[in-house]
Amino acid sequence: MRTYAVTCSTAADLPLDYLKERDIPWVSYTYTLDGRQYLDDGGQSQSFDEFYGRIAAGGMPATSQINVDQFKEFFEPILREGKDILHLELASTVTGSVQSALIVKDILEEAYPGRKIWILDTMGFSAGYGLLVDRAADMRDQGKSIGEVYDWLMENRLRMHHWLCVPDLQHLRRGGRLSAISATVGGLLHIYPMMDIDTEGQLQLRYKPRGAKGATEELMRQIQKDAKDGLAYSDKCWVAHAACYEEGKALAARVEAAFPNLNGPVLVQQIGMVLGAHGGCGFGFAFFGEKR
C-alpha cells in the first residue's frame, strides 16, 4: 500500500484519463466567462472547443486561485486514509494557490498528528508542470520516499524548460498585455510572440518569429540547444496547445524525428482554461535541460 499520494491541480493540463490511470488526485481551478462560473476540469464543464471559440469571439475569462477551503476539502480525505501528501502546484508567480496550500498544510498537520503535507511550487505551468507531476508519480511507483521525491523536484524544477508561442495578439491586447498598435502591427506581420520561463518563474518574451512555421523552427532551435545531451536527449518532451492542435501535432512529429532516444512518444496535451484565459490560443513544449 502506498504511504503517500502525489497530487496536483488541473493547471498541470494532464488528461483526466492519465490522472486516473496514474492514481493522481487533482483539484480544479475555477474561471468566470460571460458572468458564469465554471470549473477548469479537463473540459467536462465546458468543452475546450467552446471555450476557445468564445475567446476568439472576444470573451475575456477571469480565473480564481484555489482557496484555503478548497484545499482543505481536497486534502482531508487523503489524510483520513492514513496517507501523507506531496502536492505540486502551478508557479507562485502567477497564482496565490501555493500560499493557500501552505496555510492548509499547517492547519491539517495540526489536526492530523503524524501526517505530513509537502507543497512544491513547480515554478512552471502546463506541459512543464505536468512533466514534473509525471516524474513524481514515476518515482513514487519506484518506491522512492516522499522526502526523496520532494528533494529531487526541488533540485530539478529549474531544469524544466518551457516554451510557448502565442499568435492570438488581439486576446493579449484585450487583456492589457499588449498595446493596440503592437497587436495590429504584429497581426499584419503574423508575429508569434515566443516566451519562456526564467529562473524566477516569470514568463519572458524572447523571440518574435513570423507565422506557425517560423515559430516551429525557432522552438526546434531551442530544444536542440538546451535539451540535456543535445540530440542524444533521452528524457521526455511534451507538447501543449490551445486551439492549435495541428501546430502542436506537427511540432511533436518534428521533435520525435530529431530526437531518436526520447523516453516515449511526445504527448500532445490540451492547454486548459486557467492558462488559456490569459494567453488565448498558442502552442509550445517542455523538456529537461540544464538549469535555466
- Overall mean pLDDT stands at 90
List the domain count as a whole number: 2
Content-based structural category: alpha/beta
Report the biggest beta sheet as strand number plus sense, adding barrel if it closes.
6 strands, mixed
- For the secondary structure, the number of strands is 13
Q: What is the gyration radius calculated from CA atoms?
A: 19 Å
State which percent range the strand residues make up. 15-25%
Low-confidence stretches: 171-176, 178-189
CATH topology of the largest domain: Rossmann fold
CATH hierarchy, class of the largest domain? Alpha Beta
Characterize the quaternary organization of these chains.
single chain
Physical arrangement of strands within the biggest beta sheet: 10-9-8-13-11-12
How many helices?
11
Helix content: 40-55%
Shape: globular
Question: What gap, in angstroms, lies between the N and C termini?
Answer: 37 Å
Query: What order do the SSEs take from the amino end to the carboxyl end, as H and E?
Result: EHEEEHEHEHEHHEHHEEHEHEHE
- By CATH, the architecture of the largest domain is named 3-Layer(aba) Sandwich
Q: Tags for this entry?
A:
Rossmann fold; alpha/beta; Hypothetical Protein Tm841, Chain: A,domain 3; 11 helices; 292 residues; 4-stranded parallel sheet; 6-stranded mixed sheet; globular
What does this structure look like?
42% of the residues lie in helices and 22% in strands. The chain folds into two domains: 4-157, Rossmann fold; 159-288, Hypothetical Protein Tm841, Chain: A,domain 3. The two termini are 37 Å apart. Helix 4 links the parallel strand 6 (84-89) and strand 7 (117-121). It contains eleven helices and 13 strands. Helix 3 crosses helix 4 (97-111), helix 5 runs antiparallel to helix 6 (146-156) and helix 9 runs parallel beside helix 10 (245-258). The protein is globular, with a radius of gyration of 19 Å. It has helices at residues 16-21, 48-56, 68-80, 97-111, 126-141, 146-156, 169-174, 180-188, 211-226, 245-258, 273-279, and strands at residues 4-9, 26-27, 29-33, 36-40, 62-64, 84-89, 117-121, 160-165, 194-197, 203-207, 237-242, 267-270, 282-288. The longest helix has 16 residues, at 126-141. It is of the alpha/beta class and 292 residues long. Mean pLDDT is 90; it is low at 171-176 and 178-189. A six-stranded mixed sheet has the order 10-9-8-13-11-12, with helices on both faces. Strands 2-1-6-7 form a four-stranded parallel sheet, sandwiched between helices.
